[in-house]
Design goal:
The complex is a heterodimer of chains A (307) and B (273). Chain A is an alpha/beta fold. Chain A contains twelve helices and twelve strands. In chain A, the strands form two sheets. In chain A, strands 2-1-3-4-6-5-10 form a seven-stranded mixed beta sheet, with helices on both faces. Chain A is globular. The two termini of chain B are 29 Å apart. The chains are: A alpha/beta (307), B alpha/beta (273). Chains A and B meet through helix 3 and helix 5 of A and helix 5 and helix 6 of B.
């Protein structure tokens, strides 16, 4: 995903002189092409994420379209107040890109896990929160974000994520889409774990259970029309995210459901439990500890349908 | 418009102080001492003619940007902005009243002329540097002035910004530290080890000078000085509560609000009664 980001931001900057890139001292060589093609528009802001956000806000308020990029947890939790005040309160159209969201950096330990970013950032007025699912969608999400008049946060993975979409899908902020049809239940996934949800659907199909899969790459604002449709049509809805169950995407959907009085469907939430991960291991292993692997999702859905 | 003389600037500062003291009394709003210590800096920024501001076109892309990073001194900023013509002065009467946009700390929609929201310390310098960087990238000649408090130099983000400003050699930045030697609950040289403050900024790569923050000629001269190739900062020695004998250097006035009698006495001391 990060390579797709670097390539797409370079293309965009070549076409639009307002696009500037700020980095928090990561991406060794990742942005060489950007610097070559767009001299004077790349700024390594150092290991000083809070200032990077403030600087980005000041640039955005001065007519530029800056994009700030570094490791998710450092560009969100560490500088939450800069995002709250300098970006959101000032209505500065800064695009904030967090690389390595969720458990992407599982083996690096909880210092590098970002499970809380959705929960904290969706409280900020005016901030759009996006979670593309694969490298192609990173490109679409980035284009939509830079074209958006307000601030946007995009959480992405790291590298090597399998392609889900053969080409960059249409991306409208606030709009979800159905990626697989089925009548037995619906899985609504956001971001990195769409692939797990799709594989879970495959596993369920092998057992004769056809489930719908919806991708909701905008966590804020939620696609209320899609949610209303899903909760109207299904009696079982699974909400899948690689983020904390506390306050995350699933929580946001349940807030919607309460307010929309759409509580007739039974809901299964899949996400990261309220604990730090103390075990070493890569992303898929860490997902398995959270019940986020496709087989685990399929088993819970099948059991719920039986019960 | 002719450039005001130093004596005229000093008169504006006296009237601003009286207005700020009256605002604090009317609205029962604290941070009076902090507002009074930076009045001369604000008056130099807005009235000396060294910076280009356009009250009738507050969003003019070529304006110089002035950021009061110590947002708790908002009363002083509002008073100066109203006097400059950014909004009708009678709106000051509604300061901090229910429904007024003039809140205790300046927000982005509080009034024309406020560049960015401040109030949480350690934000104004970084956003100002972003504006300065944008000027360079856009080929614009505007400058950025940022007014910090000494307490604000406790914030790590201030020093992140200091490092960044030096790395980018943002020579279109002229910052001030309102060094009134107090922060909310103690001497700013004792709460954390600020001293020697000028040397700290110089070591961080800034062209750092010390001056009397109540000397209007020195303040205007600092703003008019030719660029040095580095971001500049003036460590301004000031007195908290300046202009009013019973408030000067008394940190109770960080939170105290003046009585009606004290407002009258202050006006007399300012030569306005």
């Amino acid at each position: 995903m990060r390579n797709a980001f670097a390539d797409e931001i370079t293309r965009m900057a070549q076409a639009d002189a307002r696009v500037h890139l700020l980095s928090g001292d990561i991406g060794n060589r990742l942005f060489n092409k950007f610097q070559e093609k767009c001299p004077g528009r790349f700024f390594n802001c150092g290991v000083a994420e809070a200032n990077m956000i403030s600087v980005g806000a000041g640039m955005a308020l001065s007519g530029l379209r800056p994009v700030a990029y570094t490791i998710t947890t450092f560009i969100t939790a560490r500088c939450f107040e800069q995002i709250k005040l300098d970006v959101c309160y000032n209505e500065a159209p800064l695009v904030i890109v967090g690389v390595g969201a969720g458990l992407s950096y599982a083996s690096l330990g909880p210092t590098h896990h970002s499970f809380e970013d959705i929960a904290i950032l969706r409280t900020l007025p005016g901030l759009s929160v996006l979670a593309p699912a694969d490298p192609a969608e990173v490109r679409s999400a980035l284009r939509a974000a830079v074209a958006h008049p307000g601030p946007v946060y995009i959480r992405i993975g790291k590298k090597g994520e399998p392609a889900i979409f053969s080409e960059p899908p249409e991306f409208v902020i606030g709009r979800a889409r159905t990626v697989r049809t089925g009548g037995a239940a619906c899985l609504i996934a956001t971001g990195l774990v769409l692939l797990e949800a799709l594989h879970a659907a495959d596993a369920l199909a092998a057992r004769g259970i056809d489930v719908e899969v919806v991708h909701m790459p905008t966590i804020k604002p939620l696609d209320a029309a899609m949610l209303a449709s899903v909760f109207h049509r299904h009696t079982l809805v699974g909400l899948v995210e690689e983020a904390a169950l506390a306050g995350g995407f699933g929580g946001a959907v349940l807030e919607w459901a309460a307010d929309a009085d759409a509580r007739s469907a039974r809901v299964l939430r899949f996400g990261m439990p309220d604990e730090f991960r103390h075990e070493a291991g890569e992303q898929e292993y860490a997902r398995s500890l959270c019940g986020l692997r496709a087989g685990q999702i399929a088993d819970r859905v099948a059991a719920a349908l039986k019960g | 418009m002719t450039t005001p003389s130093i004596a005229e600037l000093q008169a504006i500062a006296r009237e601003t102080r009286a207005e700020v003291i009256a605002m604090s009394h009317r609205a029962e709003t604290p941070h009076l001492g902090s507002a009074l210590s930076c009045v001369d800096i604000l008056v130099a920024c807005y009235f000396s003619g060294a910076l280009r501001v356009f009250p009738d076109r507050p969003q003019d892309p070529d304006r110089d940007r002035i950021i009061l990073s110590k947002g708790h001194a908002a009363m002083a900023l509002y008073s100066v902005l109203a006097r400059k013509g950014y909004f009708p002065a009678d709106q000051l009467l509604a300061f901090n009243r229910e429904g007024s946009r003039l809140q205790e700390h300046p927000g982005p929609q509080s009034t024309p002329g406020v560049e960015v929201a401040t109030g949480s310390l350690g934000h104004g310098l970084g956003t100002g540097l972003g504006m300065a960087l944008a000027a360079r990238s856009l080929g614009k000649a505007y400058r950025v002035a940022v007014i910090l408090s000494d307490g604000e130099c406790n914030e790590g983000s201030t020093w992140e910004a200091a490092l960044f400003g030096a790395a980018q050699q943002l020579a279109n930045v002229a910052a001030f530290v309102d060094y009134n030697k107090w922060q909310a609950t103690g001497r700013s040289d004792e709460v954390l080890a600020l001293r020697p403050l000028r040397e700290k900024w110089a070591a961080f790569g800034w062209d750092a000078v010390e001056l009397d923050g109540h000397d209007m000629a020195a303040l205007a001269g600092y703003l008019r000085a030719p660029p040095s190739g580095k971001p500049r900062i003036a460590i301004c020695h000031t007195v908290k509560g300046k202009g009013c004998s019973f408030m000067e250097d008394d940190n109770n006035w960080h939170y105290r609000v003046p009585t009606a009698d004290e407002v009258v006495q202050a006006r007399r001391e300012l030569g306005l009664a």
